[in-house]
Amino acid sequence: MLERTFSIIKPDATKRNITGEINSMIESAGFTIVAQKKIKLTIEQAKKFYEIHKERPFYNDLCEFLSSAPVIVQVLEKENAVADYRKLMGATNPENAENGTIRKKFAISIDQNSVHGSDAHETAAVEIKFFFSDVEIVG
Ligand code: CMP
């Protein structure tokens, strides 16, 4: 069954102009980008988006980073999209990411790790609603 996941191409990647290369990896892996937009988040939006991490020591730096430059938010569609996109991204820390993953190829550090992807089907639905409640996604 087709599934959707939510992705962010983060500031370290938009600043290096590698969003096309990342989208190429996403499409080559069989995902369809069914929605995307380039936006600059406010610190408040970043804090709300990453609320689940608010007790973690890296929370403030993470939110400042995400709101430091434009990001591309996107909805990806594929069978098994949530799990398959996590595989394609690779480990959160690029030092542990496998060859052929986005983070192995592009991430600078655990903080500047180029992409975010939903961790579960339910989270994907919440994250998609957070950024795309204003549009009908037709696929
Ligand atoms: P992301 O998948 O966007 O989810 C939360 C982000 O926090 C994560 O990617 C990392 O970029 C960042 N982060 C920084 N330090 C850590 C850590 N120790 N564990 C997990 N995530 C971290």
Brief description of this entry?
With 139 residues, this protein is an alpha+beta fold.
3D shape = globular
Query: Beta-strand level of the residues, as a percent range?
Result: 15-25%
Which consecutive residue ranges, at least 5 long each, have pLDDT under 50? none
Are any ligands bound, and if so which?
A: adenosine-3',5'-cyclic-monophosphate
Number of helices: 7
How many β-strand runs? 4
Radius of gyration: 14 Å
Mean pLDDT: 97
Order of helices and strands: EHHEHHEHHEH
SSE class: alpha+beta
Alpha-carbon distance between the two ends = 14 Å
Q: What can be said about the biggest beta sheet?
A: 4 strands, antiparallel
What is the helix content?
A: 40-55%
The order of strands across the largest sheet is 2-3-1-4
Q: How is this fold's topology laid out?
A:
Elements: E1 2-9, H1 11-15, H2 19-28, E2 32-39, H3 43-49, H4 59-66, E3 71-79, H5 81-89, H6 102-106, E4 115-117, H7 121-132
Antiparallel strand pairs: 1-3, 1-4, 2-3
Helix pairs in contact: 3-4
The site of adenosine-3',5'-cyclic-monophosphate has 8 residues, from loops.
Summarize the structure in words.
The protein is of the alpha+beta class and 139 residues long. The chain is 40% helix and 20% strand. The protein has helices at 11-15, 19-28, 43-49, 59-66, 81-89, 102-106, 121-132; strands at 2-9, 32-39, 71-79, 115-117. Strands 2-3-1-4 form a four-stranded antiparallel beta sheet, with helices on both faces. Helix 3 crosses helix 4 (59-66). The longest helix has 12 residues, at 121-132. It is globular. It starts with a strand and ends in a 7-residue tail after the last helix. The mean pLDDT is 97. Adenosine-3',5'-cyclic-monophosphate is lined by residues 53, 58, 62, 92, 110-111, 113, 116.
